[in-house]
Specification:
Elements lengths: L2 E7 L2 E6 L5 H10 L5 E7 L9 E6 L4 H24 L5
Antiparallel strand pairs: 1-2, 2-4, 3-4
């Protein structure tokens, strides 16, 4: 998925995704909200039918890029667990 960094500061990061689907940015924002170092994380679009979704991350102590990296690693682990749970199940 292509994305463009619109704002890159130590404690604030704004990323625009090259899609109209807000699902992935919203998933990342949800994971970021579980991190105590994250002051704010949210995904939004200017208009539901047009525009590109943006992910906004604001942090207190940790750098915003580090918080994003941690959230992506956690999501990767969760997805791997889901995959192993699905592939490990026998057909009914």
């Amino acid at each position: 998925m292509k994305m463009k960094i619109l704002k890159d500061e130590s404690n604030e990061l704004v990323i625009e995704f090259e899609t109209t689907d807000i699902t992935i940015p919203d998933l990342i924002a949800s994971q970021l909200q579980q991190n105590d170092d994250v002051e704010f994380a949210g995904a939004a679009k200017d208009h539901p039918e047009v525009g590109k979704p943006r992910l906004v991350i604001k942090t207190d102590k940790r750098k915003a890029k580090e918080a994003l990296q941690k959230a992506l690693e956690e999501l990767d682990e969760t997805i791997a667990e889901l995959k192993s749970g699905v592939s490990g199940r026998s057909k009914a």
